[in-house]
Amino acid sequence: MQRKKLRYGMVGGDLNAFIGGVHRAAISFEGKAFLVAGCFNPDQSANRECGEFYQLADDRIYADYKEMAEKESKREDKLDFVTIVTPNFLHYQVAKEFLSKGINVVCEKPLCFELEEAKELEALAKEKGLLFCVTYGYSGFPMVKLAKKLVKDGVIGDIINVNAEYLQEWLIDDIGAGDISTNKLSVWRKDPKVAGISNCVGDIGTHIKHTVSYITGLKLKKIAAKLDYFGQPLDLNANILVELENGASGVFCSSQVCVGHANGLVARIFGTKGAIEWVQEDPNYLKVTLKGQPPQIYNRGMGYVTGRASELNRIPSGHPEGLYEAFANIYKTYINALLKKINGEELSENDLDFPTVSEGAEGVKFIHAVIESNKKQSAWVNL
Amino acid sequence: MQRKKLRYGMVGGDLNAFIGGVHRAAISFEGKAFLVAGCFNPDQSANRECGEFYQLADDRIYADYKEMAEKESKREDKLDFVTIVTPNFLHYQVAKEFLSKGINVVCEKPLCFELEEAKELEALAKEKGLLFCVTYGYSGFPMVKLAKKLVKDGVIGDIINVNAEYLQEWLIDDIGAGDISTNKLSVWRKDPKVAGISNCVGDIGTHIKHTVSYITGLKLKKIAAKLDYFGQPLDLNANILVELENGASGVFCSSQVCVGHANGLVARIFGTKGAIEWVQEDPNYLKVTLKGQPPQIYNRGMGYVTGRASELNRIPSGHPEGLYEAFANIYKTYINALLKKINGEELSENDLDFPTVSEGAEGVKFIHAVIESNKKQSAWVNL
Amino acid sequence: MQRKKLRYGMVGGDLNAFIGGVHRAAISFEGKAFLVAGCFNPDQSANRECGEFYQLADDRIYADYKEMAEKESKREDKLDFVTIVTPNFLHYQVAKEFLSKGINVVCEKPLCFELEEAKELEALAKEKGLLFCVTYGYSGFPMVKLAKKLVKDGVIGDIINVNAEYLQEWLIDDIGAGDISTNKLSVWRKDPKVAGISNCVGDIGTHIKHTVSYITGLKLKKIAAKLDYFGQPLDLNANILVELENGASGVFCSSQVCVGHANGLVARIFGTKGAIEWVQEDPNYLKVTLKGQPPQIYNRGMGYVTGRASELNRIPSGHPEGLYEAFANIYKTYINALLKKINGEELSENDLDFPTVSEGAEGVKFIHAVIESNKKQSAWVNL
Amino acid sequence: MQRKKLRYGMVGGDLNAFIGGVHRAAISFEGKAFLVAGCFNPDQSANRECGEFYQLADDRIYADYKEMAEKESKREDKLDFVTIVTPNFLHYQVAKEFLSKGINVVCEKPLCFELEEAKELEALAKEKGLLFCVTYGYSGFPMVKLAKKLVKDGVIGDIINVNAEYLQEWLIDDIGAGDISTNKLSVWRKDPKVAGISNCVGDIGTHIKHTVSYITGLKLKKIAAKLDYFGQPLDLNANILVELENGASGVFCSSQVCVGHANGLVARIFGTKGAIEWVQEDPNYLKVTLKGQPPQIYNRGMGYVTGRASELNRIPSGHPEGLYEAFANIYKTYINALLKKINGEELSENDLDFPTVSEGAEGVKFIHAVIESNKKQSAWVNL
Fold this sequence. Notes:
The structure is a homotetramer of 383-residue chains.
Chain A: E1 6-12, H1 18-28, E2 33-39, H2 44-53, H3 65-74, E3 81-85, H4 91-100, E4 104-107, H5 115-128, E5 132-134, H6 142-152, E6 159-167, H7 187-190, H8 192-195, H9 200-216, E7 220-228, E8 237-244, E9 249-255, E10 264-271, E11 274-279, E12 285-290, E13 296-299, H10 308-311, H11 323-342, H12 357-375, E14 381-382
Parallel strand pairs in A: 1-2, 1-3, 3-4, 4-5, 6-9
Antiparallel strand pairs in A: 6-10, 7-8, 7-14, 8-9, 10-11, 11-12, 12-13
Helix pairs in contact in A: 1-11, 4-5, 5-12, 6-9, 9-12
Domain GFO/IDH/MocA-like oxidoreductase (chains A, B, C, D): 145-277
Domain Gfo/Idh/MocA-like oxidoreductase N-terminal (chains A, B, C, D): 7-135
Pfam family, one (chains A, B, C, D): GFO_IDH_MocA
């Protein structure tokens, strides 16, 4: 019998967490997967409160994620996938645990801290034949899909230069702050034990890297980076020269101390025949310029927007879709792929158009290269 | 015992319908109301398919909305509210049926065709003590809430002029089209039997009216309108002079034949001390200018955004929220109000900050005045 | 012998005047006309100071414009044209004087106060065979020329709707001001003796009318207007329904009390095949949308910009041209036409592409119709 | 006797030249300096045609710039200054010649090719007590002046990061072009003998450098650059990491092959208390964001715009000023300073607010550092 719906569990993301709620709402858009189990918080009161709100069976509100992986893997009505939305430093161990038990995984980025860990997870998913998604949410926006399609179709020719940035302002008060405990909001992002070796590049710089690679279909060949710490243990500002695998040059600028920018992810891709520009804060549009012609402002949902961008369009053009819908698109793709897989259908390339564990591993590699280059006086470091 | 969750039903909105899906996704954001019954389509195959997809109990997939109102009203676990997303011409009769049976109602706009019907529904809801929401979805955007607050707080002084528009292009091919059957997409909007006495003003012009009245807190005193039909039975283009109840002048422009505009609802409100501008296609921002100062671009989610706009904020500033989230805000408010009411709590003005049946009736009145003015050579018609 | 350069005189516009300086700088761009005579100010000290600064011959700094017209008309090296930049109420009499003496005229707008005066000037120029330019400066912008060309070439099809506005904020403090003498800056604009029967519509509303008629090639058939005076003797705010001679509808909004708008002339022209939008505050661009295609942002100076817009382009694309250059374009055209005429060459339609006395007369007619309609409860008034 | 007007000459810039015309028009804005001598083109027919058009005395149309410097220096009514608008490779020798003869110099950028030459010119001007202006035209825009003032006044705190770019598209066809002769338009920019050691960085990258240094008041400490040549003899694309003298980081991106960008000079300056952004293609505005507040869009000419930006404002806010006016501002400042100097008045810092020979020398140093860094695998090179 064909499965039409999936069961999922969640690790992390109690009722007060931000990103957990985004994931749950995103999954609910299609009504094709239901939350049945969870281990939302080491604090058992918060954990139970969340489980009860979602009306989970009592024995599926787990105090411990290992227990959850173990017990769920043995149920007949076990989880089809688990979503991991814990703090960064737990991603690796939680993902590994569920993969080991044969459960498909969706994990927030960064995938993990060490490249070896990333490789291990990648290998484990492959060995077990599981679908592993790393939620680079911005790649779920339809106009990012369109950008990828235009590049692939050769519309802008060969890529010769990229200029991408992710600028925020929310940690500006950390400059000159005496120690990492002064800013409660950001302390866990600045503590290497919790956040890993990088703050700014790890948290948002990786999104630049992913977005550019996703759109262009090109990996990074090498980078040369200069980071600014402003007296803090982890980086707050990064300016990075890059070279893509095809020899194209570019810069990535990532910052959490640029006043005037809330969440300014911008990707500008320049080719021999044209250019495209996508701005996350205005995500329903894509600026496309062909050589010798006026810039064109493509609008999500119009008839001239085709391919994946069209398939994933939800509401008529001019009615804005936002971040929730982008996440919902990633889950829609992942869940449909998983349904097909479970039902024994073959998966096409389009079916698998969600960010994978390999892309997560690429992100980890990028972070390490940037840190290394900065230590070596901005020398080029290969990826 | 305190109720924490609600049960709802839906009339209209099968799996292929656009707006029904938006309503269901919007409701699911908070996880506080569950679909338990429905009458989604007169076509019983489509009706059952939808009910089954949402795993409704067999006896709660109704073939007829009257039967649904009747039977649900007698269940112990009956609907807390019904959402009506049928074609326009059915709104009145369906809403009346459910109100009569004591069930709270959420209804798509336009509320109904005739002012008498609107008054009847308004009275019925009052008599039965029911909460009736008309989903003017755009008023759910946080920055519209902020605009309302700024006006109320006197930040822009007394309102002296308003300039608002709602421009679309999607019916451009109807110009010169031989008869209403040529454009399958829009035929039901152009047929007076189905769409009512107005197409363009009824469908989108009412949103201009609602948005301006909502932000300014001012009703319309009178209007003078010129409509264009381009050979079709219903209007496709409208230019309207308005006067608000405080004597402020303005214009409303509503069109479905303005190429280059997908869904261009824009409200510009001018006061003696300042001005505000909100653009639906870029809804996370509000342009606020105080006399003698540079324009400021307020950004959803920032610390300086307070009041309802802050309460309804979902994700950090710079992460775009779109139409789904605006609808979700309306449902969040409505559902919380209903929960409070059911649980015997008192409702504050903020609790009731969702578009009501009275606002729906105002919309109907506006449509009739516009049609009348156009027939009278754009003479002023009082509302 | 071929003339290569022209001699001009000026009435009004001493060293402290704003618009006089713009005219002189605009004329100097091409180096084809030189100031040789003037009557800059009734105050003789200011008058002489200005004449001396420009190194005029002593006997060509005139105390009286009548004397100037008389004496200049008799010189062998007489003026080829005079530029009139006096306060509005003097335009008619000064223009008439110079025309009578056979001297070509460039006059600031509004041409005059009464339609009969306008007709008289028009007839006089025709009778004398003189070139008469009324400086509607905005029509000198290359992208306005391109807009006109695109409409003429049928690119956007038949015009069906226009939406144009000219919003300023600089008289906001006049609202509630006790009498017209409180605001020194604007007093002469609010005094009917000096400014004529209208302030806001006369000063800026006429630019909307001219811009729309220039771009579309269509005259106004009728208008229905509502004006706001806010207790002042002349209008400060105007909302106007319009119908063009081809039956297209539209609105013109003109205001000097809209906070947040410095000099917001915007023309949006909608046709059956496309639409164009031009924004004076960002004048080097033209937004052009063809039905079913993404909006395109045409950029002045690019290869795809042809016709008059290309001929009048001065510097490479991306280097902004502003109001001075727009005025310079009008003078360039006028001076070249006058040179051709003087040299006995034939004048093409393009040669005469500057705003004429007939367009000035149209503007006067428009002002009167608006005032009349407002007095008649916004009844339609034919032009 | 007080001098009120100046005499100037020009080397280069015949009637067909682009930038020469801009300089002449810019000078004519104020009417305070008159062209009296020139050596416009080695082609004597073009040379005479230009001189005659400007009605120069026959003996002041020079065939040779050395002769011009020599003869003019001996006249009683000699040049007060000369403007040099020749191809780049001639700047040094022409400037040297006129300085040697005691004539003040205005020179297009780049000042020269070699740092030693720059130092020599700087020393010579100092020794002779002459005013030497290098026309970095963009620094004449009022809003650039305002940016500088805001930084100086501490409004945005300490500078911590800069992100600036100058993107053009006009040489895109050079990519893959067989040799430098294929594109007539750009051949002289790609020939090292004529253009110097750099094309893209020399022509436009230096404007980034100058704009950032001018606004921040900070010199560059070091740079790390990656250039792209795409098979051509000189660079077409540059991505550069920078460090300012106060330790702030940043990137400069300069390109002539970025489709979609006509003349995209953009400077974004980030400080500990705020940020400013200026966009050359929209030069009448300045985006200013203070920490924790909404971005503000400052508009040229408004009351809140003070200092030099206000002094140099020409026309009311909302009437766009462009590149000509920016150049005119530089000349206005230079000419007024020269008049004061000639008249024996003291010069304030504001009087000398035009780009100097020292700034020209800084530009030459920057170009050499960038070329060196690129050769050394993007190693940091000190300035």
